[in-house]
User: Fold these one by one.
Assistant:
Number 1:
Amino acid sequence: MKGRLIVILIIFFCLKTSILWGITIEGPFSYRINLDTPVKRIVSLSPAITETLFAIGAGTKIVGATIFDNYPEKAKLIPRVGDFSNPNLEKILQLKPDLVIGIVNIHEKLLIKLLNLGIPCYAFKLYTSLEELYLSIDILGKFTGMEKEAKELIRNIKDEFKILSEKSKKLEKRPRVFLAIWDSPLTTVSKKSYINELIEIAGGENIVSETDVFFPIYSLEKLIKISPDIIIVAEGEGSMGVSKERLLKVLDGKGLEAVKKGNVFEINGDIIFRLSPRVLEGARTLYEIFKKWSEKEE
């Protein structure tokens, strides 16, 4: 009798825990995700998602990631399911995930196939604003049962951005900035992208404004005419492969003041192109560049 009572109490406790935790989240493509327990096996199709999961303490739940997921160091040990833009369906299925998370614009077709196979999926839109970062942290916290950690992380990031914004307002001069992500054709970042927010928080002004494209092609003639104070080169694995040395070969001898004065700087593309908590590091790096320029211009 006593043993039966214990079993009943355990079942009741489990059901109560499930009811208290259970969540329903609107997923991609008008699909609702119903979860009674936190997910335990996640396949992440984006380095930004992987970094965010680690940041809230849920990195151990990732059983599959792309070949570009390289941060933090432990992320390099996760089994690979292909590259960012073309993950392998068979490899994903072999990992038996209880949730696959991707990016709407990139992974729509793959996620629909997985949904049709009965695999729960979710997709984020990670391009427009920092609000999308906070939303992704919040939802990943709910998926993994790390809601408290997620809310704390969001609060800390917002606080740190506020502190940085106040510091940048004290700069003597606000530089006009051009951020290059490719040299042939010359490609940049518009004000439509969240990266524009990072530039503004850091104390700069993005010169590219007249387009609805996230990463527009920009003519060399227009760049010469506007002549930005600072040119930023986004290099590294998070970029398209351009470097300061390579870009300078295109810009040398064109009369750009930023080139003449040595105001062409490199930044790690990973810390600005991945909408993860590390964009705070990206904004801080931009601030240091703008501060250095401002002090030199005094």
Note: Residues 2-21 have pLDDT under 50 and may be disordered.
Number 2:
Amino acid sequence: MSFSCSVYGLGLRVNVPIAGLAGLASPPGIDVRMSLGPAPECVSSIAANEWREYYASPELDEHGEPQVTVHRARDDTRFRISYLDGTVIFVDAAGREVWATMPEGATVEDTATYLLGPTLGFVLRLRGITCLHASAVAIDGRAVALAGPSGTGKSSTAAAFARLGYPVLTDDVAAIRDESDRFVVEPAYPRVRLWPQSVESMFGSTEALPRITPSWDKRFLDLRGDGYRFQREPLPLGAVYLLADRDSNPPRIEAVSAREGLMTLVSDTYVTYLLERALRAREFDVLGRLVQAVPVRRAVPSADFSRIDELCEAIVDDFRRLLPHAAG
């Protein structure tokens, strides 16, 4: 049975329930239609020689095959995203339609791990929406983005903020709405996804949180229960904190020049490698204005993971010094 919800500021209609999207508000209209099942004729009828390779990930399996391969139809109307486990996702070039085919034995939740992250991130980019590779939390009525490449602790830091009582807007993908005079972060869905080692460090056992899917060991923190909070409404972006490599010192915040902030964000916006030149140019303009309008700082975590709450407190203290009016 199909359902509709609002996610990343988009009205989404899906032909089957997806657990991670349960409880989200109904949208005023539908922007994107997503279907799981056999591919429709409009994409299944495209001959093999009508697809051209568009991108191959540098991450390879033991046989030297790329983990992800993207092809584009020669008439430029469709993309085909292929994963090594057999999942294939088709996206129309306008970011309005998504079709996902599942390999034998896969579940909807297995496929949803692709759909709710990289696929919707790509859809947002096709629709001209800038996406930071960042989680975001709410502090004093503003969105604070925690940005950085994979492995820098964005999700763990967002989960630590959640434990401290702060609402979370989004995990890993921060969709930024450009309103000319300000930038607004759209809420995603009420989960923070965590690797087992982070779960064990933060919650005492890997079994403290449920698996996203039985076939994958990654876990999720459900923001709809146990006193956690999901920020359901969009918030103006108050600051961006670039998560740096951990070191042996206590957690600390450092200044970042506008130029360094811009270069860092440009190099690590979400799925930038799939953008064409025109979209990259537009994104550069958006990010150039963003770093002039919003403070960009560096947050340096401690190598001692048990001090992650101190990092959160350092970010809050720094943010409130930067924008004392935000507390009102």
Note: The chain has a mean pLDDT of 92.
